[in-house]
């Protein structure tokens, strides 16, 4: 028996019965009270569910989507097949997200795709290299600097790594025969597609970059 279930509500009703009710067998009355107890249990379940939806850390189902819309408009939708726990964590992260810095762009992409981007600012000596700054030279990392691209940067963002369909035999593999240990199953394109569309990667960068700057972005697998 748990708080709010039918038996709990029925016991509470029994405690309110007058003392002269006694312990006699009353199947008709018991049936009527059981119906009230069932209704009371449903009402309590709705109440308990509603209480959860009043806080982001306990909200579930469509209420998380409503919370995201209230705070972020259309900027933070639930990803395909994303669980409540994953979506809730993204909402909480974005409530206090750092913005307006190079690190902000890097972190928002790590949180979204699980992979760190490559960032390059043509006017930043630490990226381009220079005298007394190591890491440059033929066939060595670095890049051409330029002061003709003020307030601009280059970003290579990476799509999430997909799991695919591991440990499942395919055409041309010697599995699936009688008396042969194997694993076979139906697969579909959803098992191979990324859950993060490119449009969401562009939107994530735009949501944290400094106003008035341009981040030229390419997306790679």
Structure description:
The chain is mainly alpha-helical and 221 residues long. Among the domains are: 47 residues; 98 residues, no CATH class. Strands 1-2-3 form a three-stranded mixed beta sheet, with helices on one face. Helix 7 links the parallel strand 2 and strand 3. It starts with 5 loop residues before the first helix and ends with a strand.
Summed up, what is this model?
With 221 residues, the protein is mostly helical. It is built from seven helices and three strands; from the N terminus they run αααααβαβαβ.
Low-pLDDT sequence parts: none
Biggest beta-sheet profile: 3 strands, mixed
Q: How many β-strands, per DSSP? A: 3
Give the number of helices: 7
**Using only CA atoms, what is the Rg?**
29 Å
Roughly what percent helix? Answer: 25-40%
Shape: elongated
| N-to-C span | 52 Å
Strands of the widest sheet, in order across it, are 1-2-3
Query: What proportion of the residues form beta strands (DSSP E)?
Result: 5-15%
Which structural class do you get from the secondary structure elements? mainly alpha
Task: Give the averaged pLDDT, no decimals.
Answer: 83
Order of helices and strands: HHHHHEHEHE
């Amino acid at each position: 028996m748990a708080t709010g279930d039918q038996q709990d509500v029925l016991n509470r009703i029994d405690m309110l019965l007058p003392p002269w009710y006694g312990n006699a067998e009353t199947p008709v009355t018991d049936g009527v009270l059981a119906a009230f107890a069932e209704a009371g249990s449903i009402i309590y379940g709705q109440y308990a569910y509603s209480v959860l939806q009043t806080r982001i850390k306990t909200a579930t189902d469509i209420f998380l989507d409503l919370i995201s819309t209230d705070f972020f408009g259309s900027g933070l939708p639930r990803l395909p097949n994303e669980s409540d726990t994953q979506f809730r964590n993204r909402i909480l992260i974005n409530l206090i997200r750092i913005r307006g810095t190079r690190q902000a762009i890097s972190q928002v992409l790590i949180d979204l795709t699980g992979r760190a981007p490559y960032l390059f600012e043509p006017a930043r000596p630490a990226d381009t290299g220079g005298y007394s700054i190591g890491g440059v030279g033929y066939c060595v990392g670095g890049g051409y600097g330029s002061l003709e691209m003020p307030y601009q940067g280059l970003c290579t963002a990476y799509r999430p790594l997909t799991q695919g369909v591991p440990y499942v035999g395919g055409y041309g593999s010697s599995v699936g025969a009688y008396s042969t240990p194997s694993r076979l199953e139906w697969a579909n394109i959803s098992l191979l597609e990324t859950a993060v569309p490119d449009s969401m990667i562009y939107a994530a960068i735009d949501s944290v970059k400094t106003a008035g700057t341009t981040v030229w972005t390419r997306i790679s697998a």
